[in-house]
Every structure is written in structure tokens, then in C-alpha cells.
Amino acid sequence: MILNYEIDTNIEIQKLTDLKVLKNIMENTNLKVNKSRLARELEVDRRTIDKYINGFEKSKSRKRVSILDDYYELIKTLLNDKIKVFEYKKVLWQYLFDNYGLKCSESSFRRYISLTPEFQEYFDQKKKSAVKAPSVMRYETNIGQQAQLNWKESMNFVIDTGEVITINIFVLILSYSRFRVYRLSLTKSQDILFNFLDESFQTFGGVPREILTDNMKTVMDAPRTEYSKGKVNNKFQQFADDYGFKVQPCIAGRPNTKAKVEAPMKILDELKAYSGDLNYEQLVIKLNEINNRENSRLHQSYDMIPLFGLQKEKDFLQPPPRDSIRNPYLIKTITAKVNSSSMISYKGNQYSVPPKYMNQTLKLQVYDNQIHIYFNTNLVTIHSLSIKKLNYLEEHYTQIARMTLPFDDDKIQKLAKENLKKIGERYK
After folding, report:
1. Rounded mean pLDDT for each run of 10 residues along the chain, 428 residues in total
2. Quick check: 294 and 306 in contact, CB under 8 A?
3. What is the DSSP letter of 318?
4. Residue 175 has what pLDDT?
5. Is residue 364 located within the same domain as residue 397?
6. Kind of pairing, strands 231-232 and 220-222?
7. Are 215 and 233 in contact (CB under 8 A)?
8. Domain interval for residue 245
9. Helices (H), 256-305
10. Are 202 and 314 in the same domain?
């Protein structure tokens, strides 16, 4: 907006700070200013026009307060933790969002970290140690055509007892919809691979026409190279034939060939942020939470929510084989009824479950020296195989105590710990 006045020059008023030039002119001339018009043009109150004409200026030294300032000490503590690892700023943001009620966008959080030198230094060190991946040509596959398979291997994790375990995470992702399945295991045996693949196909609602894989030993006897087609393991080839998919190994040393599965592997680094916090069962549950979250969120790079994409893609997948073909490849599942003490029996020893499953029949799978207990397809709990007659998890015993003892929660937890100690000594 330009206001023209009959004096020596034209006065251009485009913003509030331009108004201060009017005061001197008004004092030395008969100039009358239509403040109401100025207020309408600048979309402010008339009193604001008065204030700026009289020389008001906003303080340039005022420090802007960020809601993230309230998280400063917590972030500092987390980044100085000797057990937890935050590989990326996104991981730290997600951790605070999930566990501490952080309510800000990821972009605002990243900016805050970048503007706080001691926090930015933490991630600069991570960046220095990272190996830069070569660029890769983007390509897309037909709907229902392909899934990509990989393991995030040999990842050390500190459980809540302080023990360090080595975990492996199976990842299978449909190339079209990007719907993925994560499964956690302490080993990468072929039996577990077959079982996880079958579970994934059941989750997908069908089988893709090919699976792109690296040269893992449970799949390949000899790796594919630039000069050799490689050799697929006979047992895995039989599995592929029975399920109706083609095995498509990548050339050794070129992981970006299966970039659709390589990129989601980074998300799994989020688990490192929980080192020292979780037991094995809670770790499995956290992995499932990440899996569900990623399948339910919009992925900007390919503009799709995988869960919705799967609804479209499943119509193009091949049907799974009949049960008589599947069963030899599956980890044996047995059933057990929960008794009135909220325990199930396996090979003469008893293992606890939450009391809401009393008198229910549950399913058991045993692998990795762990008993995985399910209600239908939902994981109920996990126990390490034991030679002890009675094996309670503290949270299960505490829940049972709450149902039978008329005490407050603090007293119940104290009694539960004392009783569990006595039970442990009695049933060594």
C-alpha cells in the first residue's frame, strides 16, 4: 500500500514499522493521518497504529521460549546414557513422543537439536562413523509381483537385568505396498526362516511371485556374483516350489538392489533406544508396535499407507499352499490349558501367564530356547525354558496377588517379590 501526501516525498507504508516516519512529519506539518484506514489496510487495531506512529519497536533481544526447553535436561541425560543408543534424531524424537508425551513435529525437533551445539555434536559423531551408501536407481515392481527379504543381524541388546543378548530381526516387505513383517529371533536357522516366511504369507493373505534376497546361507549354498548365478539351497528351493514363488538372489556386495527392504532396516535401530529398559518379552512387543506403526503411517517417499496398499495388493497375490504342504515347514505348535493358578504346563514344568487367561486354551511354540505362548494369533508372553518346576514372571504374579489380596498396590508388589523369592528357593 502506498499513501501519497502533498509534501516533499511519497511515503510508502507497507508494514507497521514504517509508521514511525509519520510522527516527525505530523509534528512539523498540518498532515492529518487517517488512522482507521491504516488499521484496515494493515489489518490491525487502531490503537496499534497509534503505538507504532509514536515509535514503538519490538525488542530484538527477546528470547523465544520453546516447549522443547522443558525437555533439555531429559535429552541431555538420554544422550549421555552409556547403554541407550540414538542413531538418528528421528529415533530420539520418536522415543520422547512415545514415552514422555512430547508434542511437537519431527521437523521442529530436528531444528531444536541442530541449534543446540552439545546435542548436535552427539549426532555429528554418529554421522562421521556412518558409511555412505552409493546411490541407487529407483525402480518399481508390479502389484503382487515381489517381496524383499533380509535380516538385521547380530544386534546386541541389553535387557533389563543387565544381560547382553544378541538378537536378529527378520524383515519381509512387499515391494508394491511396502507392507512389512518384522519378527525377532535369537538365531537365524532355516527352520525359523521357514516359519517366519509362512507367518508373513498368512499376514499378507497370499504369496508374491518372487522373493528378492541376499546370499544368506539359509537360502544360498553358493552366492550369486557378477560371473555366477549362484546355487540356491535345495531345501529352500523346495520350500519356494511348494509355496509357488521364484527365488531371486541379489549379486553379492550389492545390497542396494533390494533397497526397499534395506531402508526400513534403519527404523529397527529405534530398539537400541530401549537398551536396559525391556525384558525379552517386552522387546518382542516393542518390535510389534514399531511394525504396526510403520504399516499404518503415510510414507511420503511413495505416497502410500502400507496397510491400505496391502488391501489392494492382496488380490494379486497367489494363494498359500494347503495345510498338508505347509505343516512340515512350521515350528511345532502345541496347546495347553491355563490352570486356576494362571500357569500352563510344558514338559512337567509350569509357566505363568496373565490371570485373564485362566481356564483358556493357549498355543505354545518353542524355539530359541524360549516358550512363545499365544492366544489365537496374539502373543501372550514369553518364558525362557527352565528346569524349575514353577516359573512365574513378576508382573503375572503381581496381577494374581491383586485379585486375591485386599492390600494397596505398594504392599502387594512387596509381598509378590518376597513370595517369588521364596518360591524360587523352594523350587530350584
Report:
1. 44 72 70 76 77 72 71 93 92 94 91 91 78 55 92 91 92 94 93 95 96 90 84 94 94 59 77 93 93 90 87 95 94 92 91 92 92 89 89 83 69 70 62
2. yes
3. B
4. 92
5. yes
6. antiparallel
7. no
8. 146-323
9. 259-265, 280-296
10. yes
Q: Are 318 and 244 in contact (CB under 8 A)?
A: yes
| Co-location of 289 and 351 in the same domain | no
Alpha carbon separation from 143 to 159, 176, 178, 313, 314 (Å, rounded): 40, 5, 11, 6, 9
Task: Give the whole-angstrom CA distance, residue 119 versus residue 386.
Answer: 44
**Measured between alpha carbons, how far is 97 from 394 in angstroms, rounded to an integer?**
28
Question: What is the DSSP code (8-state) at residue 297?
Answer: S
Strands in 246-249's sheet, in edge-to-edge order, are 180-185, 164-174, 146-158, 210-213, 246-249
- Rounded to two decimals, what is the model's pTM? 0.74
> What's the pLDDT score for residue 263?
65
Same domain, yes or no: 29 and 92? no
- Give the amino acid at 127: K
Phi and psi at 61, nearest 5°, equal: -95, 0
Q: Is residue 185 part of a domain?
A: yes
Q: Which residue has the cell 524424537?
A: 93
Q: Return the DSSP state at 322.
A: P
Q: What is the pLDDT of residue 295?
A: 95
* Grid cell locating 395: 508382573
**DSSP state for residue 16 in the 8-state scheme:** G
Shared domain check, 271 and 153: yes
Strand-strand pairing, 210-213 and 146-158? parallel
Separation in Å, CA 162 to CA 109, 375, 417, 425:
31, 30, 19, 22
Can you give the pLDDT at residue 286?
A: 94
Domain count, the chain: 4
Rg (CA), the chain: 31
Q: If you write DSSP's letter for every residue of 117-182 in order, what string do you get?
A: HHHHHHHHHHHHHSPPPPP-------TTTEEEEEEEEEEEEE-TTS-EEEEEEEEEEETTT--EEE
Q: Answer yes or no: do 215 and 310 share one domain.
A: yes
Question: Does residue 63 sit within a domain?
Answer: no
Asked if the structure places residue 61 within a domain, the reply is no
Residues 177 and 45 in one domain: no
- Are 291 and 306 in contact by the 8 Å Cβ rule? The answer is no
